[in-house]
Design a protein that fits this description.
It is a single chain. This protein is mostly helical. It has one domain: NADH:ubiquinone/plastoquinone oxidoreductase, chain 3 (Methane Monooxygenase Hydroxylase, Chain G, domain 1, Up-down Bundle), CATH 1.20.58. The chain contains 4 helices and no strands. The longest helix has 25 residues. It is flat, with a radius of gyration of 25 Å. The N and C termini lie far apart (61 Å).
């Protein structure tokens, strides 16, 4: 029975080895010619205009959270769509309630101006 897990262990081992190799390959074979310009904080050559402690608008965070909420809904919609033809009435009603709550939330955010980039 344990021999069924050998391919999975093999794939995990390849993934771990590939991750370590890809993370460190530049350190192993890359050129090492550090200078003052490369080691400076702003190596792109641009001088900082403002401080690093600048405040962001709350709209930025609101839009980011809305994106996450409405993006995560796909995680719940995809399995439902895959088994849609096999669902009984309770499954369809349950997903209908989920979609209804989601649409009500979207309309609420739209009316409150949460999606305006002004």
């Amino acid at each position: 029975m344990m021999e069924q897990y050998i391919p999975i262990v093999f794939m995990v081992a390849i993934g771990v080895i590939a991750g370590v190799v890809f993370a460190h390959i530049n350190r192993w074979i890359g050129p090492r010619r550090p200078n003052e310009e490369k080691l400076s904080t702003y190596e792109s050559g641009m001088e900082p205009v403002r401080t690093a402690r600048e405040r962001f608008s709350v709209k930025f965070y609101l839009v980011a959270m809305l994106f996450i909420v409405f993006d995560i809904e796909i995680v719940f919609l995809y399995p439902w769509a895959v088994v849609f033809r096999k669902l009984d009435a309770a499954g369809i009603i349950g997903m209908g309630v989920f979609l209804f709550v989601l649409v009500v939330g979207l309309i609420y955010e739209w009316r409150k101006g949460g999606m305006d980039w002004k």
